User: What shape does this take?
Amino acid sequence: MLTQRTQHMEYAIRDVVIPAMKLEKQGHTILKLNIGDPCKYDFDAPEYAKQAYINAIKQGKSFYGCSNGITEAKKAIIQREKTINDVTANEDQILINSGVSETINFLCGSLIEQGKEMLIPSPSYPQYLSFPNFFGGKAIEYKCDFNDHWNPDLEDIKEKINSNTAALAVINPNNPTGAIYSKETLEGLAEIAADKKIPLISDEIYDEITFTDYNCFTKIALDRGASIVQMNGMSKNFFAPGWRIGYAIYHNCPEILNSCSAQARTRLCSNTPAQYAMAASLNGSRDFLKENKQKLSRRMDVVGRKCKEYGLAHVKPKGAFYDFIKINTENDKQWVLDLLQEKHVLTVFGSGFGEQGKGFIRIVTLPQEEVLEEAFDRIGEFIQGK
Ligand SMILES: Cc1ncc(COP(=O)(O)O)c(C=O)c1O
Assistant: This one.
């Protein structure tokens, strides 16, 4: 009775929550290192952004907005991209949406059908694995190399491009690895796409949560004449994932924009008060971010120290709030479930992020230092008991 396309949908990050909830119901406390939601830990959206959201509601801005987004937010996006990334855009290129997730959905709706392929990083944020298949096409994973700071393997990408390749997705800074790609790698990616005339999808949702030099992929791709859909939003940089608001800028690809806009009209508009909050925030003070990045950096250091203590291999993350850690097992899903049952620590199995994630776990570096210490001591005991 149900459609084939929903039969195999998986979302590893949330799938592991079900057994954890069972344990909680039995009265156990779970140390949660699984979900990339800063608000579930001690992070929160800045006060001025929250106030702008409240003001919008109080001022009666609860109407349906234009399907592609309100002008005030588009103007703020243009200014933000110019100031932070030196990327130029105009209002007609922008589609405001309910977060990057909705853009991925729209893009697959526009570009993917039976026989079409989307090249995605491996390991990858799970939505990139699910959506192309949901739309009848295929997600083709390209290798990101643990031994090269998780940079994409350009040769592997070239080998996998064929006449069915509809788009090439890049996530930088990356979830789940926390990698920030080298400038040379980004230039190589842009050159491949420009040469083969493949539209790029650039997920830049963590672009202000960086701890080393960061280069904006969109800027590099535009300098080489590529077509690129640049995606960002309020979820991570502004610690407001539940507001469900983000944006995409369609550079050099008007047909894709038209097709995504047609889909956007069918869902009327994205959350209007949240758009006003985004308009007031994108160019606002970043003092809150400075403090939060210091906090995150200390937590990342705890994870690094603990990995060393227990002999766990990983690449020190340079951005976002994840660490992707090697565990010596063939079956990382079972390992994660056993760790949960025996030590009440919740992580996500690496294979849920694709082929290259096999034999790894993803943890978030968001919990407080003492929670991370305790969780890793339990992981250490778990490994020693095996
Ligand atoms: C790489 C990446 N892209 C997109 C998203 C989802 O973004 P949004 O909340 O804007 O839908 C996430 C969430 O974890 C992510 O890690």
